[in-house]
Amino acid sequence: MKRHISHLVAIVSAAIFAAGCASSPSKFYTLNSTAKGDGKPGTSYAVTVGPVSIPAEVDRPQFTVQISPNRVSIDEFNRWSEPLASNIARVVAGDLAVLLGTPRVVAVPLANFDPDCRVTVDIQKFESLPGKSVQIEAVWVVRKSAAGLPVSGRTSVTEKVTDESFESLAAAHSRALGKVSGDIAVAIQKKVDEKP
Questions:
Q1: Which residues of the chain have pLDDT under 50?
Q2: pTM of the predicted protein model
Q3: What is the CATH number of the domain that holds 158?
Q4: Is residue 42 included in any domain, yes or no?
Q5: Residue 8 domain-assigned?
Q6: Torsions phi, psi for 39 (to 5 deg)
């Protein structure tokens, strides 16, 4: 009888433990625009952002965190709230709207929207090191719609994180994208203002 009770207690304990593990709720994160205006008069530029390409290792709903130079971990319970590439495009578009002082910046092509410039972005590195930093390396191209040669550039940004949380990683990536957007905004202003 004693053995039967201890066996029953072990089964109930295992079931409670498994239920606790299975019920861990997923947490969802998003990137946000962080650019601040400089007080200069706005422009009337129209800009489209996209497509944005990202490394295959981070092209998933789950957070990919860097464990060592050659090892990553996929976190099942901390996820992006939307596909990362479209989230990045939306954030860059939001940053550019602030930096250029124009509401005419979109992350997807729209009917009857004739942009002055088109921006494509290739994110070559999107690293998350919990408790340490994030790193983004982006190659971007600005094309004037009417004429002219494209302008391309590379931006590499490292942002420190404030703590070990995934929220801190998302916030640091948002700040890093703000710096990428700053370089793109400078290129757009030069490109739109250049003589044909």
A1: 8-10, 12, 14-15, 17-20
A2: 0.85
A3: 3.40.50.10610
A4: yes
A5: no
A6: 85, -5
